[in-house]
Amino acid sequence: MFRLLMFCLFGAIFRCISASTEICTNSLLPGAKGDQGEIGEEGDLGKLGKYGPSGLKGVQGDSGLKGEVGHIGKMGPSGDKGDKGDKGVDGPSGLKGKPGTTCDCGRYRKVVGQLDINVGKLRDAVKFVKNVVLGLKETEERYYLLVKEPKRFREASMNCKLRGGTLAMPKTTNTNRLMTEYVLQAGLTGVYIGVQAQSTGGPGSYVYADSSPLQGFAAWSKDDDLHSRSSPATNSSCVELLSTGTWAHVECEASMFFVCEFPKSRRRGGGGRGTPASASS
């Protein structure tokens, strides 16, 4: 180390002398090359430099050991139905069963046939009671009963309610035609129906017995059609169905026959809801 310092010092003096011509007039020639100095001591560890660029990808290593089995996950959705498998091998035959009894099929057929006959007779009897004894007419949804008891409009409406129905409301052409045939068969000229002027409405405001307005259908006669558009008199605000199939105004205090209607019951069996409570006529 000391020799290296001396060598550097001599070199500096030599450069100074060779650069200053005023002080040193004699020129010095460089000496022979000296021997190589000893290797110095290892210096301190330097600071950590920046990361260099990534190297090339190495060769894939050997596969590691197989790990332990993990926890069972949740059940996934059901897959599509698979194809039908091949038929399996037939199993062994079972033990022989006990002999059966002889079936008297002809006897059972006879009983079933007699039941069908009895059901038909009962159906005809029910139809006879409805159409002849009670005098009922019917549609797919309702029964209609002509009550041959002269009553005023309010009394007729109450009588239908006591029977479990209301005054008949012909809301369609088919229903109006059926009720007209009913009146003709009874030999009558007119009957009360469930249509009345609404006291709280304006001129021409009429409602059915269930308080629903007249919509889509009305069978007023020509004279009564004009009368229905104006405000009807209090004593003629009720409506009757004539044998001609048209509607006409009538005094509510007049005593007339009337038609009640009853909704058909959705339950099977007699005495259900919607059957007329009384059919006296």
TrEMBL record:
UniProt signal peptide: 1-19
Cellular component GO terms held in the UniProt record = collagen trimer; extracellular space
PANTHER family from the xrefs? C-TYPE LECTIN DOMAIN FAMILY 11 MEMBER A, TETRANECTIN-RELATED
Region (Disordered): which ranges? 69-95
Which GO BP terms, alphabetically?
ossification
Task: Return the protein name.
Answer: C-type lectin domain-containing protein
> One MF term from GO for this chain?
carbohydrate binding
> rRNA processing: is it a keyword of this entry?
no
Could you read off the lineage of the organism from its UniProt record? Eukaryota, Metazoa, Chordata, Craniata, Vertebrata
| Cited Pfam families | Collagen, Lectin_C
Tell me, in one coarse class, where this protein mainly resides: secreted
Subcellular location per UniProt equals: Secreted
Q: Where is the C-type lectin domain?
A: 139-261
Q: Where is the composition biased (Basic and acidic residues)?
A: 80-89
Q: Which UniProt keywords apply?
A: Calcium, Collagen, Lectin, Secreted, Signal
